[in-house]
Amino acid sequence: MASASLLKSSPVLDKSEFLKGQSLRQPSVSVVRCHPTNATSLTVCAASSYADELIKTAKTVASPGRGILAMDESNATCGKRLASIGLENTEANRQAYRTLLVSAPGLGQYISGAILFEETLYQSTVDGRKIVDVLIEQNIVPGIKVDKGLVPLAGSNDESWCQGLDGLASRSAACYQQGARFAKWRTVVSIPNGPSALAVKEAAWGLARYAAISQDNGLVPIVEPEILLDGEHGIDRTFEVAQKVWAEVFFYLAENNVMFEGILLKPSMVTPGAECKDRATPQQVADYTLNLLKRRIPPAVPGIMFLSGGQSEVEATLNLNAMNQAPNPWHVSFSYARALQNTCLKTWGGQPENVKAAQDTLLVRAKANSLAQLGKYTGEGESDEAKQGMFVKGYVY
Fold this sequence. Notes:
This protein is α/β, with parallel strands linked by helices.
């Protein structure tokens, strides 16, 4: 468990605020209530009755020295992880691995939120405790992946859009009742395929609708338009595309009356394409990325939790550390999946006797990224495994 002093220093939600079985507070209306003041003026929109709770949740996740463990792999993606260490994709094996992750002693000292898959939200550990309850005991806010995955976008240049808006309100309400307090929705933009104006607009609009519906049901939305690493383009092209994407995203968030103080962002870092011959240093990545954020992200947003997107464990940590060498208007942190779990998974290898060693490895990575969030990571003593890149061309989650 995290130390008492650290728990007291972080803004923390009361356990009673997100325990299963509580009665749901029903907002009297949707996230905003719009009242025309006269026949010619714009409407005035009031905040949701969930507003205070959304702000508190967002600040809890964006607390100093902590970030998000993205363990929201679908069952199919989790199967890929298990296959890499020779394990069959069964519920028992998925349960064993997820138990290893959430029960790592003291994980909450470095991890403030965990993004779960639907199966995991309702799952118990191997010893019968609800995974949601284990996270809460660790001072980790449970979150939930609510999108339904990518499908081809008709009329585009072989691009995708993210489905899942149908039925999202009822699903979000059920997830809230189960203990989730934030949500995650991932859509993607491909630079080699354009990106087309259609794909960018579809991504931005879908994210905005999801964000409004999430806030309407008490969940802080993580807004994630991932700009894929695929391609030979340089860092300037990534910067150009990212500016356009984030301009569209915030335009439509505003159009949908999303409260910026009650969201979190999960952007890609601004890097060259994975197949570009000119590589960028951590300082270059930090400079480009922070310039982008300063141009596009309002300071009202509490936290920016970067995805790793196929970077090696060490590369993702070094880049995050470089971004935290000076104060930022937002909490600049991490929401990593493979960049937290890769070495942990291989250390475990599906063997019960390796659980402690695997948990220790997870804590090493979590602590490294905690230090990077504070701008204090040095990169000393890292293993060769942690330096191995994890980019997979055309990777499908």
